[in-house]
Amino acid sequence: EVQLVETGGGLIQPGGSLRLSCAASGFTVSSNYMSWVRQAPGKGLEWVSVIYSGGSTYYADSVKGRFTISRDNSKNTLYLQMNSLRAEDTAVYYCATQMGGGSYRYYFDYWGQGTLVTVSS
Amino acid sequence: EIVLTQSPATLSLSPGERATLSCRASQSVSSYLAWYQQKPGQAPRLLIYDASNRATGIPARFSGSGSGTDFTLTISSLEPEDFAVYYCQQRSNWPPSFTFGPGTKVDIK
Q1: What is the pLDDT of residue A5?
Q2: Can you give the pLDDT at residue B84?
Q3: Cis peptide leading into B15, omega within 30 of 0?
Q4: Nearest to A60 among B50, B55, B97 (CB)
Q5: How do B4-7 and B85-92 pair as beta strands?
Q6: Whole-angstrom Cα distance, residue A22 to residue A30?
Q7: Is the Cβ–Cβ distance between B43 and A113 less than 8 Å?
Q8: What is the full per-residue pLDDT of chain A (121 aa) written as tens digits?
Q9: If both were cysteines, with which of A4, A79, A112, B31 could B51 make a disulfide (CB 3.0 to 4.6 Å apart)?
Q10: Whole-angstrom Cα distance, residue A83 to residue A18?
Q11: How many CB atoms lie within 10 A of CB B33?
């Protein structure tokens, strides 16, 4: 059974840093595309970043240069390092898988429960 | 950058009624479009991918159609558990990125 568990959220001051983790089970993180998607309170969904199975990484313009996606294959865990945090980064952050081949990798098929990041002084 | 718009913003219907939700892309996305359902306090759930394919375990009352720039999600007969927010999503080829529409809320009339 595929499971994703995010941790690491919390209250952080503007300009601060935070690292989110997404522990995966039931599949191999390094063999699949994996993304972070966020949702500000009461708002819609916003894709943040993806790491491909080959290791290539891509980011939304809103976080480029501030956030870094990575994975630890030995721990089967996905990470999101968030630096220079702003109030507008306040959101629930979900990790999501993009498993399968072909065009199915363009979609988010399994999601974690999310972890809340609040950026406020 | 491809922008997705969804209409209507809110759809008020009764159980048993048919729901028709629209998603329009600012330029062609071929058939690379998905639909998600999200209930309060829960993560989104993939319903439809490649515009018309139901994801694993999704009931047959959910169907998707369209290609190019205009897409539709249809719920043939609303069940009580279908009242939720629905998002469409597409992927851009280069640079790789993914975009969601603003959502349509289906609520009980």
Answers
A1: 98
A2: 98
A3: no
A4: B97
A5: unpaired
A6: 13
A7: yes
A8: 999 999 999 999 999 999 999 999 999 999 999 999 999 999 999 999 999 999 999 999 999 999 999 999 999 999 999 999 999 999 999 999 998 778 888 999 999 999 999 999 9
A9: B31
A10: 7
A11: 28
Q: What is the CA radius of gyration of chain A?
A: 14
* Distance from the A11 Cα atom to the nearest Cα atom in chain B, whole angstroms: 19
A–B CB contacts, 8 A cutoff, strictly below: 56
Q: For residues A116 and B52, what is the distance between their CA atoms, to the nearest angstrom?
A: 33
Look up tokens 């501030």; give the residue. Answer: A66
Average pLDDT, whole number, for chain B? 97
In the block, tokens 């959101």 appear at: A91
A111 vs chain B: nearest CA distance in angstroms?
A: 6
Q: Does A115 touch chain B (CB under 8 A)?
A: no
Q: List residues bridging with A53 in a β-sheet.
A: none
Radius of gyration of chain B (CA): 13
What is the model's pLDDT at position A102? Answer: 84
A57 touches chain B (CB under 8 A): no
- Selected for mutation to probe chain A from B23, B98, B105 (highest A CB count within 10 Å) is B98
User: What three-state secondary structure class fits A87?
Assistant: helix
Determine if the peptide bond prior to B95 is cis (ω within 30°): yes
